[in-house]
Amino acid sequence: MRAGLARIIGTIGIVPAMLAASLLTASADEWRTSSTLGAESRYGSDFQRYDHVNPDAPKGGTLNSVASGTYDSFNPYIVQGAPAAGFAEFGGGLLYETLMEQSLDEPGVSHAMIAEAFKYPDDFSSATYRLNPNAKWHDGEPITVDDVIWSFNMLKANSPRYNRYYADVIEAVAVSEREVEFRFDQKGNRELPKIMGDLVVLPRHWWEGTDKNGKKRDITRPTLEAPLGSGAYRIERFKPGSEIVWARVPDHWSANLGVNVGRNNFDHKRYTYIQDDNAAWQAFTKGGYQDIRSENSSRRWMTEYNFPAVKAGDVLKKEFTATAFVFMQGFALNMRRPQFQDRRVREALTLAFDFESMNRTLFYDQNTRTSSYFVGSELASSGLPTGKELEILEPYRDQLPPELFTREFKLPAYDNPQSERQYLRQAVGLFAEAGWKISNGKMVNDKGEQFRIEFLGSGPTDEVISNSFVGTLRKIGIAASLRIVDTSQYINRINDFDFDATTTILNQSNSPGNEQRDFWSSKAADTPGSRNLMGIRNPVVDALVERIIYATDRDDLIAATHALDRVLLWNYYTIPQWHRTKQWIAHWNKFGMPETQPEYTGADTDSWWIDPEKEKALALKYKGAN
What we know:
The protein is an alpha+beta fold. The chain has 21 helices and 27 strands. The strands form 9 sheets. It has a 5-stranded mixed sheet with strand order 21-20-22-16-23. A 4-stranded mixed sheet has the order 2-13-12-11. Strands 6-7-9-8 form a 4-stranded antiparallel sheet. The chain is globular. The relative contact order is 0.17.
């Protein structure tokens, strides 16, 4: 797995589209201080703090972290540039805040942030957010309705993610000095009132002002001028491309809001840029560069945590449950390339992937095969379509693989010595049906062109994931290879869809909604920077995505999602890999932390704090490294 400790709002950026009982029990147009599209939040309407935090956690110290590659921008909301650590493509990151904050310990719940409350009419045709009168920027200026409207317009115009997320939001208008109304182009989309809370708010007066040289700022371009923000941290200093240090804002306006109580305890967060994972690992073992490491390598977790600091008890290993981070990870096959446009070819490549041998020899049997785009939840399809799901699929029967209705979807299982021969023979047969045959040891078409596939990666983890598969594909005459590029080039090539295949992580929630357009829609296939890396342009998929967004109740949502999952699987748009339900964390023993952590998101490191005595002992023992 390649997923790390990113905050759920920064990596997932998703909120549900479903009819929730909680939305119907309250009367229309009633102000709500928290939002939910599932069961009511266990905290009720008076959210004071998360259960897991220590409200008296001490402040102080520096959290040291590493980041990969380099950076060249402090503007994360445009396609150009590589944003610095601490910024988020979706959400506020360390610098900015959103109207409401997605919960760390409950799915589908958001709590008050810049907005102290919101409401919507019973036809779900709009949503009105009321701003907290205490909300302010770091320069002391209040956060205004004008800031909210300007941010909405700028993000829709310049951020592919926000543009698609708010595709059904036609305008934002001021209702009063503290209230802003978002108007929708359709009625009945039950997710829209809530997901407006995910809107990050930017300071209009700063972005429309001038820098120290008198040059007008431009939000449509990358910048290395430290922006004005409203969040718990601000940029204190940086070395372009190699280091950035964030400082906690001591008089942060929202420090006493429920989402922040007992959190944001480090006075400084320092990110040091290191070019590759091996160098980052060495930096962690040495101390002083990375205090907390999210480990994704099974081999390393099982065999390499035996360096002196571990043996001395100065580095500790911990496992956390993190149900929100059970992702669909797989090889995305770029159908913009002609060799992947035939479904039989994509199925053949899937048959050639030997997960079981990799799990045994490379991953110490720590991983589980992923067989759904909505793995780990009731939204994952199984068996044959029945009931409402079958009703949803029936109108599209002649546009879907016939097996979808007659066979349970199963991935190949390499569980005996004959498996490789069996599945590779099947794969060769599918290639033949698609017009490819083996001639002189090469898989070629009728023009004599060899089938080629280049896997794009950005580090050693990609080598582990891809090399075994590359070797297998070569056995059936495919010119398979792996290309590792630096982080900046990798980001640019992914944004421009300039690859044959690459490992992707498709983050989902327990209640999918508008974000599904960004994953699967035909429109997203043609939009640089979208998450539709596969280039899916399928009218059935488009229709099912809309069916999910406008689901009438939870049962309807589940059935529609099952249908979408099944269509995606049977079209073999990705080659599914694996997942884990455990989050592996190693850290230098310099922290105090709450007794429990939220099982939904796993380790909430922002609820940890520096223990001065532990830190002092480490500094003496390791000559100041910590």
